[in-house]
Amino acid sequence: MTDTQSSERQSSEKQTTELQAVTQQKPILIVFSSQVDGHSRRVEGYLAQVLQRRRNHETFSVRYVANEQRPDLLERFRIEQTPTLVVLVDRRVRGRLARPRGCEEIQAFLAPWLR
């Protein structure tokens, strides 16, 4: 195993461990997106607005996953389109929203967890 492969594996294991530790505390909101897609960038802005409205920044542990960097996670979570929002509660997928079109759609999707 090369140094690069070893480093990538350690990084992946660390990220998995962090996800497991945080899962027990609060819901995880995973944002699967592309670094080069304009729609993905807009959705990140919409999400920031939704979380900011009622001070919901601490409601979720938000993780951003770029499909260019972690195609394994896209496969694991069966992500067919980006951007896609996935909510994990107790290590289980509790919600999924593919290609949201605006703040209202994201807010409606996250409503069960928002204040």
Q: Over all CA atoms, what is the radius of gyration?
A: 15 Å
Number of strands: 4
SS field, number of helical segments:
4
For the biggest sheet, the summary is: 4 strands, mixed
Task: Note the beta-strand portion.
Answer: 15-25%
Helicity range of the residues? 40-55%
Overall shape: it is globular
Looking at the structure, the CATH topology is Glutaredoxin
Task: Give a short synopsis of this structure.
The chain has helices spanning 3-23, 38-53, 71-76, 103-110; strands at 28-33, 61-66, 84-89, 92-98.
Structure report:
It contains four helices and four strands; from the N terminus they run αβαβαββα. Helix 2 links the parallel strand 1 and strand 2. The protein has one domain: Glutaredoxin (3-Layer(aba) Sandwich), CATH 3.40.30.10. Helix 2 crosses helix 4. The radius of gyration is 15 Å and the shape is globular. Helix content is 44%, strand content 22%. A four-stranded mixed β-sheet has the order 2-1-3-4. The mean pLDDT is 86. With 115 residues, the protein is of the alpha+beta class.
Search tags:
Glutaredoxin; 4 strands; four-stranded mixed sheet; alpha+beta; 115 residues; 4 helices; 44% helix
What's the helix and strand layout?
Elements: H1 3-23, E1 28-33, H2 38-53, E2 61-66, H3 71-76, E3 84-89, E4 92-98, H4 103-110
Parallel strand pairs: 1-2
Antiparallel strand pairs: 1-3, 3-4
